[in-house]
Amino acid sequence: MSGAVSAEQSAQRGPREWALKVGPWILLFVILAVLPFQFPSFRVEQFCFWMTLAIAACGLNLLTGYNGQISVGHGALFGIGAYTTGILITEFGVPLFGATVAAAVVCFFVGILVGLPALRIKGLYLALVTLAVATLFPLLLEQFSAITGGSGGLQITSPQMYRGEMRERPIRLESPIAGLANDQWKYFLFLAITVVIFVLSRNLIKSRVGRSLVAVRDNEIAAESSGIPVSKVKILTFGLSAAIAGIGGSLFALDQGQLYPSSFTIVLSIYILVAVVVGGASSIIGPAIGAVFYGLFSDVIIQQMPDRIQPARAVILGVLLILLMLLAPGGVVGGVRSLQANFASRKGGSPGSDPDLIM
Amino acid sequence: MKKASVQVSAALLLGFALIGGACGGRDDSSSGDSTTTTAGDSTETAFIDPAADCTDYKGTQGVTGDTIKIGTVRPESGSYAIYDNVTKGLEAYFKSANAAGGLPAADGKKYQVELIKKNDEYDPAKTPALVKQLVEQDGVFALVGNIGTETNKSVRDYLNENCVPNIALATGSTQWGDANAYPWYISGLPSYATEANAWVSYLEEVNPTAKIALLYQDDDFGQSYKAAIEKAIEGTKITLVAEEGFNPLAGSTTEASVTKLSQSGADTFIVGVGGTACPLTLSFVPATWTPMTMISVTCGSKTALSLAGGKDQGVYMAQPTLDPADPADQSNPKVVEFATQGAAAGLDESAIQGGIASVGWGFGSMFAVGLKNATTVDRAAVMNALYSLKDSTFGLIRDEVTVNTDGAKDPWAIEGFRIVQRENGAWVEKAPVTNEEGKSNSFAGK
Q: Where is the Leucine-binding protein domain (chain B) (predicted)?
């Protein structure tokens, strides 16, 4: 909508403006590049986990933020991606990233199945259907323990030489670059995939297809009468969103090397939704910010607190969420936008001149 | 608008980076005064040779001056929080040792122990991050008394690859018998298979045509029992007539399973579940079914059995350790020492009598034996000491139980049980201790 306009505008701006626009991104990438060298490997692996969460949240954001369909079941789709990857690698010897592609395809179709009811039901009712999926998933993992390993977990292994004999050993992403540890290599690999997925999502949203997503969200009848195939858009968005969540899950499997049902409970679905809401729905970068916030909260801040407080993490997170929603209902990105709007109107400029901000 | 928001987001990220930066760096001093050392044990027969097996070996990580940093992971909350008492016992042991000047080592020094505890809620999905944090950030020398089979399994490759000792695992899974592949792990409990074998041996004696109904926890712990029972009854007239799996994480109870098993016509009931599910199972046994009931050793403490609603009367157990709540054991010097020093270190009467803290006390004691016997204060040396125990003992192991290890040939420290029956809150010996030195791995089923 305003993408072309803002591009024109920026072309007219001076080099100083350009530097101000590009500078922060360069800074961001420098930080991201330096990060894995500053932390011990377990922390870098956590960063990788945050990225997988960000990818899943990016998928959910397409669905919820841009297409207006609520899903509380993306934890299950994430899990399906993870288990598909694990089983394909361990049982069928599929190459690591081949399994990721397969996971995305499987999740695309599962997403379409889950999304079918969305043609008839909306809003809270759809949320309930996806909630059922999220609740059932860990139980299904337990039920089919012959394939999934049940509560004993699924060890993702491949035959490797170890202590002089071939053994099933946990998979690993070996760094091909000397001087780059395995975890650092994994970090950059995941970062590249994450960036690609976010950029592709951004391009999608800025395209005709993206505009039809938003049109369906804003007013189905109006969208229909403008010639948008509403059912097709809704179903395909569900599938695409699920596929992206599945890629996140697949990377999670590659990151952890072992999977347990307890990682894919309803709680995960809620956290993915939290990441979207905290970061700011209907902004592309929002889910990534939300995922980083959640990661910082659960892996860093809570861990620094005394053991006795840790079981209350859900309560603390809940309180923080309520506060955030009171102070910045649009999430971090929304809060930043309204701050800017205030600032701009005080300066006398026109507030919110770029309402469809991608950021 | 756009540029400003980008700036803010960048500033936020920078902020996160700074927050994170406070948590330690890759090459900073987080790993203490770690130095790369050569093989800890100079004798040729040493089980572990870090020079051959480890890349980037940090044999003395966590040893600073006269302090040794030890880590432990246990469920402090959740449905397995009852096992936190193990860690209380472990902590009491170290506290007591610290108060007495420290743990003696071969270098003539006495070491104070600093114990760092983490809570994984018995969830193997949470364990790896915590253990890696202990190793990479807190810089511990070793892990001692980690609780849970699946939780320990989830970090087995990591710890063995990094040559970090995991001593006195609070689990008897048969997997810990694979010392060839995983020499940095040593269990602090007897193998569940050896225990199951002790049950069946006793059954053969008293009821050679026993019909067993088995309730097992549907994870590695319970499956170890199941597989070992199936193996032990091969070639005997004992039969397994009914079995029910129980998933401890599903949030249900064993009641339905117990009812089913009670109608199977079995005359023997083996309860291969742990946690509070075990005593609750006893309370579900209908009055019309009076089998000979065998319970898991993980369930035999006073604390656990007090939850059985009086149905613990008459149950059987294979017992390797002294029970501080059993009047017959209370005069044993090991129990006296535990009771007096444990109390001085802050354990209350119920913890001392409870029979769970005493297990953790034993784990602390096992580490102390390893440190004392080690040729130097070094990770590999401590493991080698623990894998070459000769007529040793630690904690509250029964005096008749022999404690010997020999690398992968005999990786289990505790391999002896006596059979006891519960009578009025005490244990009555039904069969004396049988030591199965070096045989534990052979009892493991498939």
A: 67-394
ipTM of the complex: 0.84
Give the model's pLDDT for residue B20: 41
Q: In this structure, are B144 and B212 located in the same domain?
A: no
pLDDT in tens, A317-342: 888 888 888 888 888 888 888 888 88
CB B384 within 8 A of CB B40: yes
For chain B, state the CA radius of gyration: 23
Q: Give the bridge partners for B217, in sequence order.
A: B246
Task: Extract the tokens encoding B337.
Answer: 């020492």
B62 and B104 inside one domain: yes
Helix axes A230-256 and A96-115, enclosed angle (nearest 10) = 140
pLDDT of residue B220: 83
What is the structure's pLDDT at A123?
77
| Tens digits of residue pLDDT in B392-424 | 999 999 999 999 999 999 999 999 999 999 999
Which domains can be identified in chain A, with CATH numbers? 42-358 (1.10.3470)
Q: A26, A260, A264, A297: which to substitute to probe chain B, counting the most B Cβ within 10 Å?
A: A260
Residue position matching structure tokens 């049902």 = A261
Residues B74 and B158 in one domain: yes
Q: Strand ranges (DSSP E) for B285-363? A: 292-295, 316-319
Burial class (CB in 10 A: 0-12, 13-18, 19+), B174: buried
CB contact under 8 A, A167 and B123: no
Measured between beta carbons, the chain B residues lying within 8 angstroms of A6 are 2
Category of B323 on φ-ψ map: left (φ > 0), alpha (ψ -120 to 50) or beta: beta
Among B259, B290, B317, which residue terminates a domain?
A: B317
Decide if B157 contacts B175 (C-beta within 8 A).
no
Amino acid (one-letter) located at A117: P
Return d(Cα B362, Cα B367) in angstroms, integer. 9
Select the residue of A31, A145, A336 nearest B13 (Cβ to Cβ). Answer: A31
Query: How far is the C-alpha of B291 from the C-alpha of A183, rounded, in Å?
Result: 55
Q: Give the pair of three-digit tokens for residue B93.
A: 């042991």
- Which of A42, A263, A347 is the best residue to mutate to test the B interface, defined by the most B CB atoms within 10 Å of its own CB? A42
Question: Which tokens sit at A122?
Answer: 């909306």
CA distance B73 to B62: 17
Q: What is the DSSP string of A258-313?
A: EE-GGGGSHHHHHHHHHHHHHH-TTSSSHHHHHHHHHHIIIIIIHHHS-TTTGGGH
Cβ atoms of B142 and B62 within 8 Å: the answer is: yes
CA–CA gap between residue B413 and residue A303 (Å, rounded) = 35
Question: What is the CATH number for B172?
Answer: 3.40.50.2300
A134: its two tokens: 């999220």
Count how many Cα atoms sit within 13 Å of the Cα of residue B286 in the half-sphere of its side chain. 12
* B299 and B345 share one domain: no
How many domains, in total, are found in chain B? 2
Q: Is B125 in CB contact (< 8 Å) with chain A?
A: yes
CB distance B234 to B442 below 8 Å: no
Q: Is the pTM above the cut of 0.95?
A: no
pLDDT score at B38: 42
Which of the two residues, B277 and B252, has the higher pLDDT score? B277
Q: Give the end of a domain, one of B317, B347, B372.
A: B317
Decide: helix, strand or coil at residue B122. coil
In angstroms, rounded to a whole number, what is the distance separating the alpha carbons of residues B268 and B241? 10
- What is the share, in percent, of chain B residues with pLDDT greater than 70? 90
Q: Which residues contact A266 (CB under 8 A, 6 or more apart)?
A: A72, A75, A131, A134, A135
